Amino acid sequence: MVNLDCLTRITVTPFVLVILCVCWISAGTCSSLKIVGVAVPPLADLREPANLACSYDTGQDALFSVKWYKDDHEFYRYMPMHKPSVLTFPFEGAELGDKSCGKSQCSVRLEHLSPSASGAYTCEVSIEAPTFRTAIETRNMTVAAFPLEEPRIEGLRSAYTIGDVLDITCKSAPSAPAAQLTMFVNNKEASLTSEV
Description:
By secondary structure, this protein is mainly beta. It folds into two domains: 32-144, Immunoglobulin-like, CATH 2.60.40.10; 147-196, no CATH class. Helices cover 11% and strands 41% of the residues. The longest helix has 16 residues, at 14-29.
């Protein structure tokens, strides 16, 4: 907010108006930097690559940098005005695959995921001097190995009579973390020693 008392004591000349406009612009009222969207899969299968994308709008300002972080550790930097324009840094849980950054979007692919790739992924976009204004957005990703098939019941006979003992096993395909299985008989949850 402009202090009008201060302005009433200044003799307004074209030079003073230019200084006021420059001060107002450098205070950030004219910057339109914004992150339009960040796409990070909330759940990623460790057998598949994960694609991260950050879309941004720098308005009239030039892009200075786009950085990707995992849990506050920078692993990718794009600076279009520098040579080299791309820097990568090792990080735990994945390897960097394809990368593509430009004026309005930056995408990276994470490959060879492990459970330690789970965490908070942040896109940080900065504009050029004089303000170097920055916009940041974070999304969480959990890495797991989903079962590749439905759970199956083993030991089930085609018919039972009253008083028969039902001795069955419910199994799931391998997964990480391990699947939690619940058995239902006649739409009621069955315990390990249920009588129905």
